[in-house]
Amino acid sequence: MPKRKAAIAVGGVAALGAAALLLPNANASQDKASGAAGTARTLKAADASDLAAQLQKALGDALAGSYYDSAKRQLVVNVVSGDKNVIVQAEKAGAAVRQVGNSTAQLRSAARTLKARATVPGTAWAVDPRTNKVVVTADSTVTGAKWDRVRSTVRGLGSDMATLKRSAGAFKTFVSGGDAIFSQVPGGNVRCSLGFNVTASDGSPAFLTAGHCGVAAKQWSDSQNGQPIATVDQATFPGQGDFSLVKYDDPSTQAPSEVNAGNGQTVQINQAVDATVGQTVFRMGSTTGLHDGQVTGLDATVNFQSETDPNGVDTVTGLIQTDVCAEAGDSGGSLFTQDGGAVGLTSGGSGDCTSGGETFFQPVTAALQATGATLGAGAGAGAGGQAGAGDQSGAGAGDQSGAGAGDQAGAGDQSGAGDGSGAGDQAGGDQIGGGADPSATAGGEQSGAGNRSGAGTGHRPGAGAGSSSLTGTR
Question: pTM above 0.90?
Answer without folding.
Answer: no
